């Protein structure tokens, strides 16, 4: 793995400042790879990029190593957010968010490597999400031999943010996207506002899938909760919608209770090398600089998951 301009050192998980964490468990080397939003816009003359840390116990992490550095002429120029890594055939795909230059929307891009830690290279020099949509937080889902990119169509472009899916063929989108979630339709959600851009709307973040023992398909995602409705923290949260058909095509219904109402969110799931199912999230969500990768052990039930 490649060094960065930063010193490589081993630190405790609780000392890592990292948003949108994602853990890839590599069985072949018994190594955990931790990715996240760390170096989103570069600094000085150093370009933005994606870093990775490694561990064999989930508490002591060595890094940062350079997982991806954009080549000259790459379409994404800033807002390097929320990378996640999946094994695809004989290689590894990193799905990550980038913002293009003037006149180019934010979108999910696909990078490819021969090793989970990188170095990653663009599969194609463009976003995989529709070019007319402001999008982010793509994840990969496979069903019946078909691959789908699932992503968030942002509230910054449309008042009601959405989570959508589009089928892929060799990494290229085919057909038209279809809706899974329309934010604002959920009973617990509240509007999000950003005074910097003088906009408000219903935010969608971080879709991630899990197949329950009873065959239901669960999709975890994040937004902001209304404490007057939930009686909880009222901040950034993790919610679940489910497809009782077991298919990505739904229909989709919300779970009545929030999965994690703790000023924490943007979650994904992974298994330890002993087989334990874990939820990976950042907590707290605010203030900026205090976010840390946080892991919760999960219990599998007949119809879903519970935090142990």
CATH fold node name: Tachylectin-2, Chain A
> What is the string of SSEs from the N terminus onward?
EEEEEEEEEEEEEEEEEEHEEEEEE
Q: What is the overall number of helices?
A: 1
Low-confidence stretches: none
Helical coverage, percent range: under 10%
Question: Could you tell me how far the N terminus lies from the C terminus, measured between alpha carbons in angstroms?
Answer: 35 Å
Mean pLDDT: 95
The CATH fourth-level homologous superfamily: Glycosyl hydrolase domain, family 43
Notes on the structure:
- By secondary structure, the protein is mainly beta.
- It has one domain (2-307): Glycosyl hydrolase domain, family 43 (Tachylectin-2, Chain A), CATH 2.115.10.20.
- Helix content is 1%, strand content 52%.
- The chain has one helix and 24 strands.
- It has one helix at 227-230; strands at residues 2-3, 9-12, 19-26, 31-37, 50-55, 60-68, 78-88, 91-99, 106-113, 121-122, 135-143, 146-153, 162-169, 172-182, 192-194, 199-201, 205-211, 217-224, 236-243, 252-254, 265-271, 277-283, 292-300, 305-307.
- Strands 1, 2, 3, 4, 5 and 6 form a six-stranded antiparallel sheet that branches. A four-stranded antiparallel sheet has the order 7-8-9-10, with no helix packed on it.
- A hairpin with a 2-residue loop joins strand 7 (78-88) and strand 8.
- The mean pLDDT is 95.
């Amino acid at each position: 793995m490649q060094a960065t301009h930063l010193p490589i050192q081993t630190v405790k998980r609780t000392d890592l400042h990292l948003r949108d964490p994602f853990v890839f468990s590599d069985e072949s080397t018994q190594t955990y790879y931790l990715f996240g939003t760390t170096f989103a816009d570069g600094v000085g003359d150093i370009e933005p990029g994606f870093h990775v840390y490694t561990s064999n116990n989930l508490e002591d992490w060595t890094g940062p190593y350079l997982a991806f550095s954009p080549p000259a002429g790459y379409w994404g120029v800033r807002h390097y957010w929320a990378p996640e890594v999946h094994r695809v055939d004989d290689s590894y795909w990193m799905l990550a968010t980038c913002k293009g230059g003037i006149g180019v929307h934010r979108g999910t891009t696909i990078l490819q490597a021969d090793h989970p830690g990188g170095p990653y290279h663009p599969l194609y020099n463009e976003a995989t999400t529709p070019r007319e949509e402001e999008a982010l937080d793509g994840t990969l889902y496979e069903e019946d031999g078909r691959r789908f990119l699932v992503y968030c169509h942002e509230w910054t472009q449309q008042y009601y943010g959405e989570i959508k899916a589009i089928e892929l063929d060799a990494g290229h989108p085919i057909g038209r996207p279809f809706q899974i979630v329309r934010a604002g339709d959920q009973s617990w959600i509240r509007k999000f506002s950003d005074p910097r851009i003088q906009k408000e709307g219903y935010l969608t973040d971080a879709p991630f899938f899990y197949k329950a023992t009873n065959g239901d398909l669960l999709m975890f995602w994040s937004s902001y909760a209304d404490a007057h409705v939930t009686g909880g923290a009222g901040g950034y949260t993790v919610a679940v919608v489910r497809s009782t058909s077991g298919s990505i095509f739904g229909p989709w219904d919300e779970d009545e209770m929030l999965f994690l109402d703790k000023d924490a969110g943007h979650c994904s799931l992974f298994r330890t090398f002993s087989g334990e199912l874990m939820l990976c999230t950042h907590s707290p969500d605010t203030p900026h600089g205090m976010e840390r990768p946080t892991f919760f052990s999960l219990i599998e039930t007949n119809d879903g998951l519970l935090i142990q």
